[in-house]
Amino acid sequence: MRFKEPLQVKGLTLRNRIVMPPMATNKAVDGKPAAELIAYYRQRARGTALVIVEHAYIQPEGMAHAGQLSMADDDVIEAYRPLTAAAHEVGALIFAQINHAGARAQDTGMPAKGPSAVSVRGSKLAQEMTEADICQVIRAFAEAAVRVKKAGFDGVEIHAAHGYLLNQFYSPLVNQRQDAYAVHPMENRIRLHLAVIRAVREAVGPDYPIAIRFGGCDYTEGGSQLADAPVAAMAFENAGVDLIDLSGGILGYQRPDHKEPGYFKDMSLAVKEAVSVPVILTGGVTAAVEMEALLDERAADLIGVGRALLQDGDWSVKALTGRA
User: pLDDT by residue for the chain (324 residues), tens digit each?
Assistant: First the structure.
């Protein structure tokens, strides 16, 4: 079966096509993974090819919520090594996801900042970021990626989806800037993404895998459109991304009025036509037969299984043995 076939990504061999996508548990202790969280990931890594750990903030002012993991200072590096070792012990690869919440930052004691002075998904009114703020964020992403590498992760994923900072710059619903980061033309709205990708690549070196979780379409009136996604994805690949992990935009990981397996499939098909790097499709997949059908259709190269793995830590093992 296709979902059991291995896949090469930037020198890594993924043993099959099952990916655990990043899903926040809010169980970090002082920004670090404690024993309970390590055990949680270890169980779900069994049978899974790639585990992408829930988002970690790159700056204290970019924290999305209490209980979130941190990748904001060197003190956290040692705490992640048991987590990466746990995944490797059961044969999985493991990436860390790094993020800045932008206007959606909470519980930081500092003003939330975003591309424009707007509210995002019910957040408080944000302050518009200055050029200096933007430069600090680019540098913080690069520094966080170095910590990811030092902690033993097999790769790093840049979070650019679900209404967080990079997605805020990409979405016409949020970005009201009139400068070089304005939402039009496309080169402006992804200027920050490309700067982050290039800074991370320079920081981690030419051989370290970089993924991006990309909210390529907002699926709502006035937001980013389906046709935008492949154009941006090509630019990300050219800037140095090795894996494109597709998800929703400002509305989050769900799609209005869609619950079918692979409900972002229209986006993944368009992106796959445009890029040569592997593509991950997540959304609505709860059974191995659904995963197989999407791979047969060449809707993606890898399938993210979220809710099913969240509810059943042994789902991947069951899928590989015909029990899911």
Answer: 999 999 999 999 999 999 999 999 999 999 999 999 999 999 999 999 999 999 999 999 999 999 999 999 999 999 999 999 999 999 999 999 999 999 999 999 999 999 999 999 999 999 999 999 999 999 999 999 999 999 999 999 999 999 999 999 999 999 999 999 999 999 999 999 999 999 999 999 999 999 999 999 999 999 999 999 999 999 999 999 999 999 999 999 999 999 999 999 999 999 999 999 999 999 999 999 999 999 999 999 999 999 999 999 999 999 999 999
**Alpha-carbon dihedral sign for residues 24, 26, 27, 33:** positive
Work out the number of other CB atoms within 10 angstroms of the CB of residue 178. 9
Number of H helices, E strands in the chain: 11, 13
DSSP 176-187: ---STT-SSSHH
Nearest to 95 by CA among 241, 257, 193, 307: 241
Reference 150, options 201, 206, 228, 84; nearest CA is 84
Catalytic, 170? Answer no
- CA 143, 122, 117: angle at the middle one, nearest 5? 65
* Pair 282, 264: CB distance under 8 Å: yes
Which residues are CB-neighbours of 323 under 8 A, at least 6 positions away?
Answer: none
pTM for the structure as a whole? 0.98
Active-site residue, selected from the candidate residues 41, 57, 80, 164: 164
Structure tokens at 195: 């700067």
Q: How far apart are CA 121 and CA 100, in angstroms?
A: 15
Do 321 and 33 contact (CB within 8 A), yes or no? no
